[in-house]
Structure formats: C-alpha cells, structure tokens
Amino acid sequence: MIFTDKSLATPDVVRILGERFRDYRMRLRLTRKEVSVAASIGMTTLYKFETGNMTDISFRTLFRLLRVIGLGENWKQLLPELPESPESPYLYDDNDKKMQRVRHSKK
Q: Is residue 98 classed as helix, strand or coil in its secondary structure?
C-alpha cells in the first residue's frame, strides 16, 4: 500500500491517487463530465486531480469520487476497526472501563 512509504509527501500521494482514479474511470468507460456530475464536483477539480496538478484533496471530494467508481465502501480500509484484545490493556482504565480519552499526568 502506498501510504506505508513514509518518504511520500501528501502531494505525491494525491498525484498517485489521481492517476489510479483516472485508470479506474477509463476502465469503467466514464467521461470526466459523467464523473463530475455524479460526484457533484467541478470538471476543473477532477481534471487537476487526474493529471497530478492538485496538491491536496478533501476527504469529502475523494469519497464522492470513490462512490462514483464503486469503491465507496473502501474507506473502511483506511482505519480498520481495532480489534479488542486482552493484550491491549491501554484501552481500559484501572476500573475495567473502556477509556474515552487519553490524559497524561501533570509533572
């Protein structure tokens, strides 16, 4: 997966995602106009994303685009649900209650 490579800056990741998105769109035989309308985004935004001329993209926009090409459910892979484990005591406080936040003691 590309995100495990710490040497990639955000613009590089966005560029790679844009190129991959273009490949998916073309394989599905969708025009930029069709995707633009279906995702409710501007043609210029889509063009910049696909051609690598965008340095950042909002999650909302990316999610809309993923839905158009049938990958809307893939967001779950970004942060998979963390399995509960007895080996992970940091999830519970001293009273066996699931922690709601992390606090560090003041020194």
A: strand
Q: Is residue 55 part of a domain?
A: yes
How crowded is residue 15: how many other Cβ atoms within 10 Å of its Cβ?
A: 19
Indicate whether 24 belongs to any domain. Answer: yes
Summarised one tens digit per residue, pLDDT across range 27-70 is 999 999 999 999 999 999 999 999 999 989 999 999 999 999 99
Whether the full predicted model's pTM is greater than 0.90, yes or no, is: no
Tokens of 67: 């839905």
Q: What is the domain extent for residue 56?
A: 7-75
Contacts of 64 (CB under 8 A, 6+ apart): 39, 40, 41
Tell whether 11 is covered by a domain: yes
DSSP 8-state assignment for residue 8: -
What total number of domains does the chain contain? 1
Q: Are 15 and 52 in contact (CB under 8 A)?
A: yes
Residue 98 φ/ψ, nearest 5 degrees: -65, 130
**Quick check: helix, strand or coil at residue 92?**
strand
